[in-house]
Amino acid sequence: MGEITKLTQPEWTIMIYFAADNNLCKWGRDTLKDLQGVGSAPEVRVAAQFDGQGDRGIWQYRIRKGTADADVKLDEKQVPDSADPDTIVNFVKWVMQDPTYQAKKYALILWGHGSGWGSKKTTRPTKAREKPLRPSSKGFFRKAVPPVGAGRPAMGGGALVDYGSGNDLDTIELSRVLGRVNGSLKPSGRKLDLLGLDACLMSNLEVAYEIRKHVRYVVASEDLQRGEWNYKEILTTLRAEPGRSAVDLAEMIVNSCELTIG
Q1: Are strands 159-162 and 167-169 parallel, antiparallel or unpaired?
Q2: What is the pLDDT of residue 41?
Q3: Residues 6 or more apart from 235 whose CB is under 8 A from it?
């Protein structure tokens, strides 16, 4: 009888959701390359989903070092919508199909534009949303990257702005999505250990209150970010010490951003 190999349950599964169908697409692709430069490890699994500007399709990756090919390309007859709750939940379900990604602790990072609390459905009338946003006086995401809404119809508060669909995900929708995400984790119904909001203006009491029942810890910025998170450093540190807690991981992210973003 052949030798039986027992699967080792990972300490962490990190899921990174790129809503890059907007003017941040170039920086999103750079970040994806950084992830692929580090890769996964038996105790730290990394997965990503990428929706880029102008793309007809969504790419899903189980991140492996040095491998740039997507595991799955979801072909779409229409332009995909990263702000659609189903798109987020289906990504988590896809990750959970692989038993080697069913971990002791889970982190979901939502990458893209953010504009704080609010609902485009209730807080801003339609005519106001049709007016262009005034460009911010503060730069973010490295140099010369235009703010959310530049050259596009203005949208309400929320995150994951998608130029192709014209939608974003408001805070009420975010709370509902996270409840569905928890139902898709293995075992079902547990809370996310860490939610990362790699976006501007998402660290405020209103957002935290809405999602309080669905996540244990949140990492986000209360201001405009001047760059993306340093995923290479964060993942390298976590791989070296995979048993670290959700609080530890949150502190790693904050400390890394303080050094690289300021």
Answers
A1: antiparallel
A2: 95
A3: 14, 35, 38, 44, 46
Residue 55 one-letter amino acid: D
Taking CA atoms, 255 is separated from 17, 27, 216, in Å, by: 22, 21, 19
Low pLDDT (below 70) residues in the chain: 1-7, 75-79, 118-157, 261-262
DSSP state of 114: B
Closest CA to 48 of 59, 40, 37, 34: 59
Could you tell me the two tokens for 193? 């250990």
Domains and CATH numbers, the chain: 12-260 (3.40.50.11970)
What backbone phi and psi angles, to 5 degrees, belong to 65? -60, 130
List, in order, residues 6 or more apart from 239 with CB less than 8 Å away: 38, 41, 43, 44
The contacts of residue 253 (CB under 8 Å, 6+ apart) are 196, 219, 229, 234
Would you state the pLDDT for residue 114?
93
User: Whole-angstrom Cα distance, residue 14 to residue 88?
Assistant: 14
Q: What is the pLDDT of residue 127?
A: 35
Spatial CB neighbours of 143, under 8 Å, sequence gap ≥ 6: none
Alpha helix (H) residue ranges in 2-99: 25-38, 85-96
Strands 72-74 and 105-111, bridge-based pairing: unpaired
Q: What share of the chain is helix, strand, coil (3-state, %, to 5)?
A: 30, 20, 50
Q: Find the Cα–Cα–Cα–Cα dihedral 242, 246, 248, 249, rounded to 10°.
A: 70
